[in-house]
Write a structure and sequence with these properties.
MutS, DNA mismatch repair protein, domain I; 14 helices; alpha+beta; single chain; 3 domains; 4-stranded antiparallel sheet
Length: about 400
């Protein structure tokens, strides 16, 4: 049975939610930002986009493009709540649903569309329910696979609905620039252009051996993408995580190592707590640092045993910092736990000091789960004011990727 995949992509999601929550913002150019002093635009309303305001712009650039721009500090809990409610809408039409990001979902309606009048009827119904219930718009793409469904939604924004049937795929791709395809970024586009490949049609006709020689194993995947072929399934259940990490852009560039370590401890606690909550252990710890010129580098170390203890993660990251000769101040810090495995519940510790440390972590986790993040915290970073960060692209509405 040929697949029928639907991509539901919310239009200017954060901005639309804020405009719906505050009627005074409706019809006006607004941009949603983080709460930090060095934040950037995370989403702009379509009224603001007409003036050239884009995601990733800093405040100065956005205000220069649109002097009347209204800035709104993002409320992540509001967006997460809306996303979870949206999944309930999707599940009315199929159990095979993947929340790909906070504002985007893939639905496999292959075996259910006939129950609701066909693919287009489902798309119309979903758009109406979302508009009536939440007051916001979405764009829906329907196609034989995820790649083309995503393309259908991208080229139909805003508030669109498009069904690209299998027979239509070659004509749609023939003259389409390769950079329009999901998964092909600017660097890959430039490398393809150097080979004389600028459109998806040219990519699909290109020699597989040529692409393999230039891009390695992904060369064949690129050729298939140019032909509109994609075998990636809709992943209805979350896959096992490969890593658990947090990073933050600092309110100001810092060079003092004790201050850097305070942030590393904070990030280590965020990573460790999330790993403990979902019963994961990791064997590798990574420390990422970024300079003001955006040069970014990562160091990694392997632990002697699997762990999710905040202080083990912190000590490993701090030790790596000690071995780094900083050439400038730091603007971003990240800590990540990888080589993940599941923790065995109720496995007793052999030594009293380990038992006491595990009990302390469990008490801290319980207090913070009940009263809010960082209500009980380590003295080393009490001085650091927590920045309400932007939702990570890796965010998911359930499981270990549910973060704030």
């Amino acid at each position: 049975m040929p697949k029928i995949i639907m991509c539901v992509d919310m239009d200017a999601f954060f901005a639309s939610v804020e405009q719906q929550a505050d009627p005074r913002l409706r019809g006006k150019p607004i941009a949603v930002t983080g709460s930090g002093a060095r934040t950037v635009i995370t989403t702009a309303s379509y009224e603001a986009r007409k003036f050239g305001v884009k995601t990733g712009m800093n405040i100065y650039e956005a205000k220069k493009a649109c002097p009347q721009l209204i800035l709104v500090t993002g409320d992540n809990e509001k967006y997460i709540h809306t996303c979870k409610e949206l999944t309930k809408v999707y599940n009315q039409f199929t159990p095979d649903m993947e929340t790909y990001s906070i504002d985007e979902a893939f639905l496999d309606i292959t075996t259910t569309h006939h129950l609701f009048g066909g693919p287009e009827a489902i798309g119309i119904s979903i758009k109406k329910i979302i508009k009536d219930r939440f007051g916001i718009n979405c764009t829906i793409g329907i196609a034989p696979n995820i790649l083309i469904a995503k393309l259908a939604s991208d080229i139909s924004k805003p508030d669109g609905l498009r069904w690209i049937r299998p027979d239509d795929v070659p004509d749609v791709l023939k003259d389409l620039p390769v950079k329009e395809l999901w998964g092909i970024g600017s660097k890959t586009s430039e490398r393809l252009a150097a080979l004389g490949i600028k459109t998806c049609g040219e990519l699909g006709r290109a020699s597989a051996s040529l692409l393999r020689n230039r891009f390695g194993i992904i060369g064949e995947t690129l050729k298939l993408m140019g032909m509109g072929i994609c075998s990636r399934p809709v992943i209805a259940e979350e896959e096992e995580p490969k890593s658990i990490g947090h990073s933050m852009t600092l309110p100001k560039n810092i060079g003092d190592r004790d201050e850097i370590k305070a942030y590393i401890l904070k990030l280590s606690e965020m990573v460790g707590r999330r790993a403990r909550r979902y019963r994961y252990l990791g064997r590798k710890v990574s420390l990422t640092l970024r300079y003001p010129d955006f040069e970014t580098f990562t160091k990694q170390t392997t632990l002697s045993q699997y762990a999710n203890d905040t202080h083990i993660i912190y000590k490993s990251a701090a030790d790596m910092l000690s071995g780094i000769r900083l050439k400038d101040r730091i603007r971003l810090i990240g800590v990540c736990l990888s080589d993940i495995t599941e923790d065995e519940p109720h496995q007793p510790s052999l030594f009293e000091i380990e038992r006491r440390r595990k009990d302390l972590l469990n008490i801290m986790d319980a207090v913070n789960d009940r009263f809010g993040d960082f209500k009980l915290t380590w003295a080393s970073y009490i001085m650091q004011e927590r920045d309400g960060g932007v939702i990570s692209p890796a965010w998911r509405p359930t499981g270990v990727r549910l973060t704030l």
